[in-house]
Write a structure and sequence with these properties.
Layout: E1 2-3, H1 8-16, E2 29-30, E3 34-37, E4 40-42, E5 49-52, H2 55-58, E6 65-73, E7 75-77, E8 93-96, E9 99-102, E10 104-105, E11 107-116, E12 119-126, E13 138-141, E14 144-146, E15 150-157, E16 166-174, E17 178-182, E18 186-188, E19 193-202, E20 211-218, E21 222-232, E22 240-242, E23 254-260, H3 264-270, E24 276-285, E25 295-302, E26 305-315, E27 320-324, E28 331-333, E29 346-350, E30 363-365, E31 370-381, E32 383-385, E33 388-391, E34 397-401, E35 404-405, E36 412-421, E37 427-434, E38 442-450, E39 453-457, E40 460-463, E41 469-470, E42 474-478, E43 489-494, E44 504-509, E45 513-519, E46 525-531, E47 539-543, E48 546-547, E49 556-563, E50 612-623, E51 638-641, E52 646-649, E53 652-655, E54 661-663, E55 666-670, H4 671-678, E56 683-687, E57 692-697, E58 700-705, E59 710-713, E60 716-719, E61 725-727, E62 730-734, H5 735-741, E63 749-752, E64 757-760
Parallel strand pairs: 3-16, 18-26, 28-38, 40-50
Antiparallel strand pairs: 1-31, 2-5, 4-14, 5-13, 6-12, 6-15, 7-14, 8-9, 10-13, 11-12, 15-16, 17-19, 19-24, 20-23, 20-25, 21-24, 22-23, 25-26, 27-29, 29-36, 30-34, 30-37, 31-36, 32-35, 33-34, 37-38, 39-42, 41-48, 42-47, 43-46, 43-49, 44-47, 45-46, 49-50, 51-52, 51-64, 52-53, 54-55, 55-62, 56-57, ...
């Protein structure tokens, strides 16, 4: 059952129009996989066949030459027959026990060259459309000797011919007279369950003795309740039975099977045929001794059988599992609603039949910030009625309706989801199975949400009443090439402020191109993608940004945001109808694809009323003092570390040609570098004849003379902790004197002795 967006139909139709010949492929195959003991021979009556047939061979003309190599693993070629001759007749036959049998069919003028015991080259001419079964192809009988335990494979090397290469398993080589396998472990509740498809198989025809017993033993505190035996050939069913004394005597952890093939009829039935015994054992366990999750093992031994121990069951209580497939998480981009991106497949499976109470409410819930576009339901086992879902107003909660399970066996069903992701949602996307229909709430991670672009910017202090105030550069980086789609727009906004004039915008990495870059009427910086990135993610640099600062702007921090450029509302989509949403109008926004007007009703839709996403808090920090107030305050935090070649004004790194240092116990800071980092309006002058440093900072004028322990602030002499000194042509004064000069008190001047770091403001 498919529940998809209507837009997906176009893609389905496009695939449907592709000619079937575009999907042509090799049909090389092995007729069957046999089981054999080590050092046993596969003869013409027991050997599988390798059929080579594909379009390229069919297109060859009759009589066309062809050659290919066949290489074996865990086996050796044994096509010599009674004579021991290495030659194969030109008609592809060999002699076996005095009889002529086929080895290669579909070719004339056959030549087989032995490269080694495991490798041969087959040459010949195409026989035509009567080569094998009335079609044009090649068949090779796997006349071999099985040499080593494991899978016996044949690999086709096409050399320079039209044959398709490939490796194919034709036999399983095993020790002993028989092998024992189980299809998979069974979940067994307290009241028991039947273990099916436990298979005992002769490694080769006649390898088991004519008469013997097979013993089955379970783990402690487990017991047999019944045992059904099926035998192939079916004519031997009466020859394999429970041993005398075990028939009807169930309740123990071990049981014994007896077989007898001594009659003439039994001998005839098993001639050239490997016997297969299939067991269906009903078992249970002592729930006082066995804990949920414990594994039950079955040990099989007996006459001619290598002792084998298999994991056959797991003790469980009633319940339901909810697991996502073990694959890399698919990426969903924040703000997107791409119907072509599927979540991981999630499987809901009963641990015990009738565990899921389908007559009670069951829900699949996604986080806030995730809404469902569609659901695919597949591979439902023992679900008698595949029902539907209803969806809640928030679009993130699906409720099962009308589902019914087959109470005679465990139910299993697989889901994948198409999702709409809120513009501000990032991180793991979880699907939680919950409600009264299941034992407990279970969560699976089905995808991850990633922002389509990352934005970095430098924070700036801006003083009220300054015109064309310069602010920090902005860097925009795509998460992946092509995320910013051609023809779509995106915009940057400074909270409650406006860009002044058009800044410089350039693509510094990637092949994306922009057009219509401008500051719109709302003061947002808007740009349109002229052509999207194809090779690598784009990096866009925004420089020369300015603000026009009004006197009445409140002091404080203002965030940098990405904002929607689209003004759609919920009328552009229809409500969820239990199967899909229909999109009537595609968004023109590159980032807010699923955003609608904030005052629109988005209930029962895949849309979000999210119109902006904050990228950087405090991108602009408005300072209260204006030009007429002296410009002698600042809000920048300056961090200087002893010996470091750079200091930090907020988060902006500033290079130092002469690092700070400690002299006679005092932390010495460079006067010009520190002052100019703290305030764009401060002016530092040097008078070389008098060795005097003058700082003009708003209405404060500070003078200090190299070698003097006194500074003069607005005509008032103020003692210093240490003299002003010159180091590498730079004037340095103590940390606290630097702070006092700029109007800071002790609470704004800090020293961390452990890291040797000074902090101002």
């Amino acid at each position: 059952m498919k529940k998809k967006l209507a837009l997906l139909l176009a893609a389905v139709m496009a695939v449907g129009m592709v000619p079937m010949t575009a999907f042509a492929a090799s049909t090389n195959r092995i007729s069957n996989v046999v089981t054999g003991a080590e050092d046993s021979d596969l003869t013409s009556s027991t050997a599988p066949t390798l059929t080579i047939y594909d379009d390229d061979i069919e297109e060859m003309t009759s009589g066309a030459p062809i050659a290919f190599e066949l290489d074996l693993t865990n086996a050796e070629w044994n096509y010599y027959g009674d004579t021991g001759a290495e030659a194969v007749a030109t008609d592809g036959t060999v002699t076996e026990n005095g009889s002529i049998v086929p080895f290669v069919e579909g070719l004339d003028n056959v030549i087989v060259t032995k490269l080694s015991d495991r490798s041969i080259v087959v040459e010949g001419k195409i026989k035509g459309d009567n080569g094998i079964g009335g079609v044009q192809g090649i068949r090779v009988y796997m006349l071999t000797n099985l040499t080593d335990n494991g899978d016996a494979n044949v690999t086709i090397d096409p050399l320079q011919s039209e044959v398709t290469s490939g490796t194919y398993k034709f036999a399983t080589v095993a020790d002993g007279d028989a092998t024992v396998t189980v299809e998979k472990k069974k979940n067994v509740p307290e009241n028991g369950a039947t273990l099916e498809n436990i298979v005992i198989r002769e490694t080769s025809a006649g390898s088991l003795d004519d008469k013997g017993t097979i013993k089955l033993k379970l783990s402690n505190d487990w017991a047999f309740r019944s045992l059904d035996i099926t035998t192939y050939p079916t004519s031997l069913s009466g020859n394999v039975v429970l041993a005398a004394g075990d028939d009807g005597d169930y309740g123990n952890e071990d049981i014994e099977i007896a077989y007898d093939f001594t009659s003439d009829a039994a001998k005839a039935a098993r001639a050239n045929t490997s016997i297969i015994i299939t067991l269906a054992a009903t078992v249970d366990y002592d729930d006082d001794e066995v804990e949920p999750g414990e594994i039950c093992e079955m040990t099989v031994s007996g006459d001619g059988i290598s002792k084998t121990t298999l994991e056959v069951a797991t003790a469980v209580t009633y319940g339901v599992t909810w697991e996502a497939e073990d694959k890399t998480l698919p990426v969903f981009y924040s703000g997107s609603m791409d119907e072509d991106v599927d979540s991981l497949e999630v499987t809901m499976e009963e641990t015990v039949k009738a565990s899921w109470l389908d007559n009670r409410k069951t829900k699949i819930v996604f986080p806030e910030g995730v809404r469902v576009l569609g659901v695919d339901i597949s591979d439902d086992d023992n679900i008698t009625t595949v029902g539907d879902f209803t969806i809640n107003e928030d679009g993130n909660e699906l409720t099962f309706n009308g589902w019914e399970t087959d109470k005679t066996d465990t139910a299993e069903v697989h889901f994948t989801f198409q999702l709409s992701i809120a513009p501000d949602f990032t991180g793991d996307i979880t699907a939680t199975l919950t409600g009264k229909g299941v034992d407990e709430e279970i969560t699976a991670v089905v995808g991850t949400a990633v922002a389509p672009v990352t934005v970095e910017a430098e924070k700036t202090d801006a003083i009220i009443d300054y015109r064309h105030t310069a602010i920090g550069d902005i860097t925009i980086t795509e998460a992946e090439a092509g995320v910013l789609e051609k023809g779509k727009t995106f915009a940057l906004q400074i909270e409650n402020l406006a860009f002044d004039d058009d800044p410089t915008v350039e693509v510094v990495s990637g092949d994306l191109k922009l057009k219509n870059v401008e500051v719109d009427d709302d003061g947002n910086l808007r740009m349109t993608v002229d052509s999207e990135s194809a090779k690598e993610p784009a990096v866009i640099k925004v420089t020369n940004c300015e603000l026009y600062m009004e006197r009445n702007i409140p002091a404080g921090e203002y965030a940098l945001k990405l904002v929607s450029t689209d003004n759609r509302d919920a009328s552009d989509v229809s409500a969820w109808d239990g199967e899909n949403f229909t999109i009537n109008e595609e968004s023109s926004d590159a980032i807010f694809e699923n955003s609608i007007k904030s005052d629109a009703d988005n209930d029962d839709t895949p849309y979000f009323d999210k119109r902006s996403v904050t990228i950087l808090d405090g991108y602009v920090n408005v300072v209260t003092s204006g030009r007429d107030q002296g410009d002698n305050t600042f809000t920048t935090t300056l961090t200087v570390t002893i010996g470091a070649t750079e200091m930090y004004a907020n988060d902006k790194a500033i290079a130092l040609d002469v690092p700070a240092y400690i002299s006679n116990g005092y932390t010495m800071l460079p006067v010009r570098a520190v002052t100019e980092a703290l305030s764009d309006s401060a002016i530092v002058r040097w008078d070389d004849p008098t060795h005097t440093v003058t700082i003009t900072f708003g209405d404060r004028v500070i003078n200090m003379v190299v070698g003097s322990s006194v500074m003069v602030i607005n005509g008032v002499e103020v003692p210093m902790q240490a003299q002003c000194e010159i180091t590498d042509s730079r004037a340095f004064i103590p940390l606290r004197d630097m702070g006092y000069a700029l109007g800071l008190n002790d609470s704004k001047i800090n020293w961390d002795d452990a890291t040797k770091t000074a902090t101002l403001n």
